[in-house]
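I have been asked to look over a protein record a colleague put together. The record follows directly below this note.
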Amino acid sequence: MGIWILFPLFVVVIASVPSTANLEGDALYALRRSVKDPDNMLQSWDPTLVDPCTWFHVTCDSDNRVTRLDLGNAKLSGYLVPELGKLERLQYLELYMNKLEGAIPDELGGLKSLVSLDFFHNNLTGPIPSSLSKLSNLRFLFTNNPRLEGPELMGFVRYDAGGCN
């Protein structure tokens, strides 16, 4: 009888614990929905799996938090999504050699652990969000599109088609 009394309490405790993995999985799945993926690079990105750390091209730390997203040369086309700003421990966002277009979401300025943003060889346009200037760990921003404009961001190196700025 003691088991039946404890079981409902156990279920309530489990249900009340927030899952960061689900938030991060939802953010990554939002990206998957916003892009075309002709080579099925994102086929392992299954929103029914609790842990996005099991997905290809995603690296996590010992706490199962996303730290790296490697989607360079994946032939993706489409748009970046603001949900990427929920990847609080993301350090490397590798999106080079794709056909992404549109603006860089302002929400990326909330990625306090970000060290490198690699957008080289995409079709992104508009301003580089000023929120990126608040990222004290950001050291590299790789671009090649002169249609990206914005504030001079101190504390990191920007590489583009014209060389190092």
Observations:
- Residues 2-16 form the longest helix (15 residues).
- The first strand starts at residue 35 and ends at 36.
